[in-house]
Amino acid sequence: MLSSRLKNVTPSVTVAISSKVKELKANGVEVINLSIGEPDFTIPDKAKAYGKKSLDENKTKYDLVPGLIELRKEICKKLDRENNISYTPDQIVLSSGAKNSITNAILVLTDPGDEVLLPLPYWVSYSEIIKITNAVPVEVPTCKDNNFKVTVEDIKKYVTEKTKAIVITNPSNPTGCVYTKDELYEIASFCLQKGIYILADEIYEKIRFNDSFVSIASLNEEIKNITITINGFAKCAAMTGTRLGYTASNTEIAKGMSTIQSHIVSHPSLTAQYIGLGALLECEEDMQHMVETYKKRCTLITDRLDKINSISYVEPSGAFYIFIDLSNIKKNFDYKESFSVEFCEKFLEAEKVAVVPGKAFGIDEYIRISYACNESEFMEGINRLEKYIKNFI
Hints:
This protein has 14 helices and 13 strands. It is α/β, with parallel strands linked by helices.
């Protein structure tokens, strides 16, 4: 008999959709994929050169569990320079992607039955990672009028004696919203008062369209001490397949994560780490080019969406997603269980466009589209969306 935890864990919706798209394409069906959060850029050549050089020099043996010391030093410099946070290399733990980092953090912070607060909408894997570790995800409803950014008043209603941590994603996936410094300070101060750890997922921090982004751990030393910053190279350097994430935390938490990681993956791929080192040292210009491209795409796609009747969306300030409200469509759409899941299935079948159902993020009236693809694709995808929803207006 298999583990009972499998009964509570749902496969990744975004991965499932991506697999379906690949299956359709393999069968000769042309599909526009607006579902997956994967940059359409490739790893910058200068970063790849570091990986190639490491292989040529046979740097393929076991290394330190928390990661290459030279890479951790560069991450410390990056956090000091860009995020105004001071860390030492022993407080940085490299992992095989941000998911691995989040899992390490949850394992260190929680015991079975402890609760982790998840403001709605949230990235699909948070709740499942929490379940896998035998902690309990607790959904915290937020307000559309506040662009779904959680407030202390929202949080207070769901804090219990079992509350151990809260996940704050900034910029947000799926909404693209960015918290202000004052908003973060209010939340962090409350968490400090209640002894609640903060998992600050800042994987999209470079992909922002204004200067309002602030790292939670930069607010003050006390807040920094209860914050585990999650980051990585997948989004900023297009390193999705090479799997390289990292955490920055206090020394005790970092040591705990290293201990756990030593028994699970030892350390992330050395080749990936050298590519990440190259990205930090050589590729800031490449990364900024990606951000400017996303910013241009965001303007194009929101201008187009503004011309479509009966829908609205959350105004993004970062990441590369649009969270679209289809409440007006839902009223006339025939579905059995989940509006957004069945809408996405039928939309894919009818118009050959893949998008992600809002149910995957905890809000069923919405869909998420990604503009991490070329302009002609996402604009055609929106044209087909407009055509399709006219059937239900």
